[in-house]
Amino acid sequence: MAVDVLKKHYLNEHVLVRARGMNLCNDRAIEEYLISLLRQGNSLFAKTEDDQVAGICVSYASSPLDPKNLRNYAFYRQDPNTKDFLYFTAKLQETPNLWDIYKERKVYEVRMVTVKPEYRRQGLAVMLVDKSMAQAFDQGYKVVRMDCINPYDYKVAERCMMSCLTRFPLHKLRGANAPFIKKSSEHNCYVRVYVEARIQGDKPDRIRLKQRHDFDSLIE
């Protein structure tokens, strides 16, 4: 049920999927990828009284190896749409490299948030992200990340009092194995990387991070 909701209401509305006219709904490899995220056990669900899924927040604790492993998984996929989506996800995950910036072995990522259309505008997305952040800190993680790439999810991050670490247009998200969106595309919106960090002592702030790290070079 969760995978079906993610494919229908998250993947179909994903900016890269829309920009490239992809169809990932019947892709077994994408389904395996979604299941692997859900199996970590950190995702939260909002359910109706009759036990139907109304909304999902997929979260997991990631390490610097995860983008590399995702690229390896993408390399052996035959469908070009699958490759592009997974390569894009891996590139986004390490831009910027929060493991290095915060000197943390694990970063808790709010990776996918979606609510069925009939249950939207009721605060479900905000509730799910807020509870996911609380869950992360309860488990001992110190940095929570949420990448916002559509006109709506960044508002959820801001309502959860997360801070925007950096912002850049999608056409700058390029790499050796990262599909790009054209600068002239109507889907060339901004990526906003939101962070909530509970670091003891010298906590990096956005100004000092920008001085220490050239975000343009990280984005390529």
TrEMBL record:
CDD domains: NAT_SF (cd04301). Pfam families: Acetyltransf_1. It comes from the Eukaryota. Residues 97-150 form the N-acetyltransferase domain. The lineage of its organism: Eukaryota, Metazoa, Ecdysozoa, Arthropoda, Hexapoda. This is N-acetyltransferase domain-containing protein. GO terms for molecular function: N-acetyltransferase activity.
